[in-house]
Design brief:
Blueprint lengths: L2 E5 L2 H18 L4 E4 L6 H14 L7 E4 L1 E3 L10 H13 L6 E2 L8 H14 L5 E4 L21 E4 L2 H7 L13 E4 L2 H5 L3 E6 L5 H9 L17 E6 L7
Parallel strand pairs: 1-10, 2-3, 2-6, 3-5, 6-9, 9-10
Antiparallel strand pairs: 4-8, 7-8
Helix pairs in contact: 1-2, 2-3
The structure holds 2-amino-2-deoxy-6-O-phosphono-alpha-D-glucopyranose.
Protein name: Glucosamine-6-phosphate deaminase
EC number: 3.5.99.6
Keywords: Allosteric enzyme, Carbohydrate metabolism, Hydrolase
């Protein structure tokens, strides 16, 4: 079973993430970070930015790989994950943008973009610490229910539920939410050496319970974390309420 830490506030969760990552960077300045989007990691990135600044940690050589990207959305669109990762992590933490990778959602190269991305992760020596959020249906990255637990990075169709959940980032207009994406596979994510999954709020309680205590099944992609040698769930009391 994965380790579960129940915290009172998102700030507390962020501090645990920042401590783990900050210390790991001190020990290995070329650390490879796995990055995630969504609203959940925000406080973790803020806490890391503060720790890096307060302690003068050199992050100039830190490398990063984001989990996913919308397909066919201009990378300069404010809600593309290229933009979100730049705004939420790269700029506040002061990472070198040239060392931070986001899957390429351009339609022309989609057929091989997944394999190219996995090859790049492998060439970097693999991800050391991967931060994860979780969808209300138990998805990680954009691996929707039914995704193979051995899947590589590839194109996927977004479920209606995920598009509805994410419409808030597109002025609440569902028609603006892309229908497809490119995402690290569950198999890709599972290769990271340490997984830290954050979940806050009652809306995530069912997904957290299914992931931590339910059967390991592709119907709940996050349940794969039960098989990982070093996975940590950091959840608030509301997200833990169905455990
Ligand atoms: C999107 C992302 C996931 C993220 C999820 C939850 O679907 N692809 O990586 O975990 O949203 O988002 P939030 O953290 O905003 O609840």
């Amino acid at each position: 079973m994965a380790e579960v830490l129940i915290v009172k506030t998102q700030e507390e969760a962020g501090a645990i993430y920042a401590q783990a990552v900050g210390e790991a960077i001190k020990a290995n300045p070329k650390l490879v970070l796995g990055l995630a989007t969504g609203s959940t990691p925000h406080t973790a990135y803020q806490a890391l930015a503060k720790k890096v600044k307060d302690e003068g940690i050199d992050v100039s050589q830190v490398r990063g790989f984001a989990l996913d990207e919308y397909a066919g959305l201009d990378p300069e669109h404010p809600e593309s994950y290229h933009s979100v990762i730049r705004r939420e992590v790269v700029e506040p933490v002061g990472l070198n943008p040239e060392l931070i990778n986001v899957p390429n959602g351009a339609l022309e190269t989609l057929p091989h973009a997944g394999a190219d991305y996995d090859a790049a992760i492998e060439a970097a020596g693999g991800v050391d610490i991967q931060i994860l959020g979780i969808g209300t249906d138990g998805h990680i990255g954009f691996n929707e229910p039914g995704s193979s637990l051995a899947s590589p990075t590839r194109m996927k169709t977004l479920t209606e539920q995920t598009r509805i959940d994410n419409a808030r980032f597109f002025d609440g207009d569902l028609s603006q939410v892309p229908t497809h994406c490119i995402t690290q596979g569950v198999g890709t994510i599972m290769k990271a050496r340490h997984l830290i999954l954050l979940a806050f709020g009652e809306g995530k309680a069912d997904a957290v319970a299914a992931s931590v205590e339910g059967p390991v099944t592709s119907i709940c992609p996050a349940s794969a974390l039960q098989m990982h040698p070093h996975a940590t769930f950091i959840v608030d009391e509301a997200a833990a309420s169905k455990l």
